[in-house]
């Protein structure tokens, strides 16, 4: 697990904000005191104009980058919420459609989908939270659901309609699962993470 994920998983947002802001202020004050003692000319304000322009430029650039990062993360959050909601809705609709099938088929399909949902919540989400999303955690339950539908031959027009809907919803569940795991593996663009170090080195 990366350091950033460990911090996010073990500390609240408020605590991280206080530590980040407070630490930055303390470092700035300590650096200012040390520089004033090391270079007395700074205390007399001989270079205030140049320093002010430089700080203003860097402040504007970092402000733009910070806004871009916030918008990117917010967009990813909304997309993830939509994916999870769609996956949950499709799973519920499969269970609803299964009421039109014989008891044995309905029981097997309900068991497969129930196992899938519990595995997502109890196993896959913790893995995603730790930064290690995996398809294997839910693969067995999803394959079982597919096998139940593949082995069943619907009788009558009503069953055929519900059968097709169940198959479509199960395909959607598989698609949403892939989208969810792909989203969990996404990171910020490399330019956002490398620019600050490149700017300092230049």
Short descriptors:
single chain; 202 residues; mainly alpha; 85% helix; 0% strand; disordered C terminus
Question: Mind sketching the topology for me?
Answer:
Layout (H helix, E strand, L loop, with lengths): L2 H8 L2 H26 L1 H4 L4 H50 L5 H27 L6 H16 L4 H29 L5 H12 L1
Helix pairs in contact: 4-5, 4-7, 5-6, 6-7
How does this structure look, described?
With 202 residues, the chain is an all-alpha fold. The protein has helices at residues 3-10, 13-38, 40-43, 48-97, 103-129, 136-151, 156-184, 190-201. It is built from eight helices and no strands. Helix 6 (136-151) runs antiparallel to helix 7 (156-184).
How would you classify the helix and strand content by structural class?
Answer: mainly alpha
Helix content: over 70%
Low-pLDDT parts are 191-202
**Main beta-sheet annotation:** none
* Straight-line distance between termini: 31 Å
Computed over alpha carbons, the radius of gyration is 27 Å
β-strand percent reads under 5%
Tell me the number of helical segments per DSSP (H or I, 4 or more residues long): 8
- By DSSP, the count of extended strands is 0
Shape: elongated
Subunit arrangement of the protein:
single chain
Average pLDDT score = 81
């Amino acid at each position: 697990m990366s350091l950033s994920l460990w911090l996010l998983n073990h500390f609240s947002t408020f605590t991280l904000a206080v530590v980040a802001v407070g630490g930055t202020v303390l470092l700035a004050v300590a650096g200012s005191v040390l520089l004033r003692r090391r270079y007395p000319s700074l205390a007399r304000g001989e270079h205030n104009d140049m320093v002010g322009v430089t700080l203003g430029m860097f402040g504007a650039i970092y402000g733009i980058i910070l806004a871009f990062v916030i918008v990117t993360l917010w967009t990813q959050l909304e997309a993830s919420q939509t994916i999870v909601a769609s996956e949950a809705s499709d799973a519920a609709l499969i269970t609803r459609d299964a009421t039109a099938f014989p008891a044995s088929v309905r029981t097997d399909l309900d068991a497969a989908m129930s196992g899938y949902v519990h595995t997502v919540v109890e196993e896959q989400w913790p893995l995603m939270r730790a930064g290690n999303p995996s398809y294997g955690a839910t693969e067995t339950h999803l394959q079982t659901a597919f096998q139940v539908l593949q082995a069943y031959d619907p009788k009558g027009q009503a069953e055929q309609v519900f059968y097709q809907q169940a198959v479509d919803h199960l395909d959607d569940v598989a698609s949403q699962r892939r989208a969810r795991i792909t989203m969990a593996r996404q990171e910020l663009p490399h330019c956002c993470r490398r620019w600050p170090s490149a700017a300092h080195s230049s």
